[in-house]
Amino acid sequence: MSKRNILHHSVWICWKDLLEFSRSKLRLVMLVLMPLFMMGMIGFIFPSGDSISDTPIALVNMDAGYEDISYGDIFLMQLYEVNNRTGMMDLSAAKDFDDIKIKLQNGEINGGIIIPEDFTTNILSGKQGNLTIVIDQSNPQLSVTMQSVLSKIIEQMGTQMAVQNLNTTYNVSINTATTMVTPYTVEFKGIVPGEPNYFQFVAPGIIAMVVMMALMTGLPHAISYEKDTGTLDGMLVAPIHRLSIILGKVMAQTVRGMIQGFIILILAVVLFGVVIEGSIFLVVFLVLLTVFSFVGLGILITSFTENEETATMVMMSLMFPMMFLSGVFFPLQQMPWYMQGIAHFLPLTYATTALRKVMVLGADISAVSTEIMILIIFGLVLLLVAVPMFKKAMCK
Amino acid sequence: MGNAIKTTTITKNFKCPKCGKIATSTGMPGERTIVTCLSCGLQGKVTLSDVTSTNGFAIEISHLKKMFGDLAAVDDISFSVKKGEIFGLLGPNGAGKSTTIRMLCTLSRPTGGSATVAGYDIVKEDSKVREHIGLVSEKMIMYNQLTARENLKLFGKLYSIPDDTLNKRIDDLLSFVHMKKWADHRISTFSTGMKQRINVIRALVNQPEILFLDEPTLGLDPQSTSEIRELIRRINVEDKTTIILTTHMMVEADMLCKRIGIIDNGKIVALDTPANLKKVVSGADTTVFEIEISNLSSGMVSSVKSLGSVKSLVQDDQTHIKVHSDGNDAFDSIIDTLRKNNAKIRSVKNLEPTLEDVFLYLTGREVREAVSENSNNTSNRHRFRRTSRIR
Lengths: 396, 391
Known about the structure:
Strand content of chain A: 5-15%
Structural class of chain B: alpha+beta
Radius of gyration of chain A: 30 Å
Distance between the termini of chain B: 40 Å
Number of helices of chain B: 13
CATH architecture of the largest domain in chain B: 3-Layer(aba) Sandwich
Largest interface: A-B, 25 and 31 residues
Number of strands of chain A: 4
Oligomer: heterodimer
Strand content of chain B: 25-35%
Number of domains of chain B: 3
Structural class of chain A: mainly alpha
Strand order of the largest sheet of chain B: 10-11-12-7-13-14
Order of helices and strands of chain A: HHEHEHEHEHHHHHHHHHH
Shape of chain B: elongated
């Protein structure tokens, strides 16, 4: 059977699959909605640094002051001023630590600040003013953020006060005083223009993941379903190469995955301000390569599972670890070493890394050549195992 | 089928069946052409086979075997199907009919033995076999969301039929089953009978020499059943297509098939024309009685069963038993035995043998018993009773 015929037959099988797909309105709607949900969900739920707003915080001012002076009041004034600018906190008053504790337990507040009785006297007598920040341990993510944000504010306020003190007490000019208190300043600079954001990081991974999901769920469905309903026999009994069936199915699922991938890409650019720095053609090429690296796995699972239900179950249990271990949502570097080790055996890791390099950093093909090589090897090895398995499974 | 194999044309001689003169036909190997005898004008369809299979057999099976683990689904069967005949494989569910068909269609590999279909080996030349066959499987091979025409087109394309030929072929097939006005409706909107008509012509899109039908009337209402049976006959007569069909319905096999192979537990237990098969029962001194006894008891049944002249006994319901017996004095001894058991005999009928009786005679069981033995489940027994009964 000639190569032209194999391709010809596979195009007709692909045509059939897509036609069947397009006849179901719900499936068409979901085709568009799924990436929308995905992007919307990831876009809006993940905390991105300073996204905290209106967090309820209780204040306890026990400062007794000294004569007319109360540094506690000054601190609170400054705090209100900062909060008016940023809107991070929703400040309220509390009586003491126990009051804060009850309010925390009731979920009325997420944290508290306590100004002790001897705050003013300490400062006046040349000691440091000590503040207590109460955190909510049941919400580690929030409490970590609160800790860093509050300490930053307090540190800034402290610096400001120090500068003022130097200025008034020792008559040092404001500029010199600032240099004395904070001798170092830092400026962050990336290699591409623009502020880094989480979408920029997550969008390439999501594209690779959605394409993978389309293929991994679509392929077993497309083949096992036809095996279950008996229609696959019609193709198997026709004088066509077994490769045509695989190829046709893969083509149809690739088209589906690519459509979803593009929807995500467009959403990322339009809604979340993601900028594609590298070549769009390289992006498309990498997405196709991702498909190639997964096809073998899809066929393999289809071959050794006897029905659609089992195939879907196996797929799902493989897909979830892959989604979370491949650095789609969290950087690989944040994982413990053994998890990073596992990640190196997942093709999605390389697809995500390569896409991220190209889309975010504007890398060219030479910069991602290692990833490309690895993806090709993954795809080839899996296909070499999967295709003979498929042929055997189809002729039991 | 033309462009699937790109070789030079071949010329073949055919002997006219009417006058014995030689007619020639030229075309691609594997192509089916119309040959006209120059001396008497008889027309016929011939296949330009590139291997010489002149022995008149469409299918030859020799010691074919299929094991599923320890279970022999098909246990060393051998038979041949003549070109142009309708051959029936008759047997209860699970007898090995479908497995045999699947092996012949190259969908399943035999564990042992060999078979040729259209002159090609089913293992070594499986792709050649596929070019010459059509399959109507137990499950319908159709995509419900596609229209009838789209379904036919897809499969035509898988046989590499060029567009113009294919479009004409599809139109012909649709009018053949009076479905032309439904051509562009989705399969999902069709009744089961309509679906099955499309399902059958779908298997004809490549003009197969041999058509396999696996339980083609299963689950159809009586009207659709007779429609499909009529269609099968027309395909056989008008296209000269060899047909091999499986069924568990005796009536269907009796009506359609020129020859029948009775299969049970993976073995062919008899193979002949329906008439000859019935002679096995009626010819060999065997008589079938239906006896109605108003106070029928299990003691009567077992004592009649133990008689030497009784080949088999089946209890039909509360009052009826059906007895196959051998020899001239069989009737007397049965009646004597029943009287001894104080049986009140209401009526005795001498039955014409049916294929059901043939199966009973050969295997000692009714088709429905063979089924429930396999499933060993009372609820199943009732289900199969409905489908397996003589119609």
